[in-house]
């Protein structure tokens, strides 16, 4: 795996979404309440609209463009069903959040 630094660990908090750039890809780091931080491609599968400005309430991510709804723990769409955000491997090492966007 080819992990790259995307932000300091101190910049992410449980219940929040943080937009980042990993290499040449826009990603989001989502840390759902009671869960673990996860990294996803920031494009909504509907029309590729950036989710970097999505509305995240700690459990659910809402695409502000067309109202698609995603589960913050799994990245699966809740409305409409049958879609999912593209997840990237994430790890925290030496105080840095690292994501592998190359192996996918």
Automatic annotation (TrEMBL):
It comes from the Bacteria. Pfam families: Rieske. GO terms for molecular function: 2 iron, 2 sulfur cluster binding; metal ion binding. Belongs to the bacterial ring-hydroxylating dioxygenase ferredoxin component family. Keywords: 2Fe-2S, Iron, Iron-sulfur, Metal-binding. This is Rieske 2Fe-2S family protein. It comes from Methyloglobulus morosus KoM1. Its cofactor is [2Fe-2S] cluster. Residues 4-99 form the Rieske domain.
């Amino acid at each position: 795996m080819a992990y790259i630094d995307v932000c300091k660990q101190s910049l992410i908090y449980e219940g929040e979404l943080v937009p980042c750039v990993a290499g040449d890809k826009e990603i989001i780091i989502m840390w759902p309440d009671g869960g673990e931080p996860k990294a996803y491609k920031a494009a909504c599968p509907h029309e590729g609209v950036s989710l970097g400005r999505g509305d995240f309430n700690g459990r659910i991510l809402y695409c502000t463009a067309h109202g698609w709804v995603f589960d913050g723990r799994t990245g699966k769409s809740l409305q409409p069903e049958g879609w999912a955000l593209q997840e990237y491997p994430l790890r925290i090492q030496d105080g840095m959040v690292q994501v592998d966007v190359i192996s996918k």
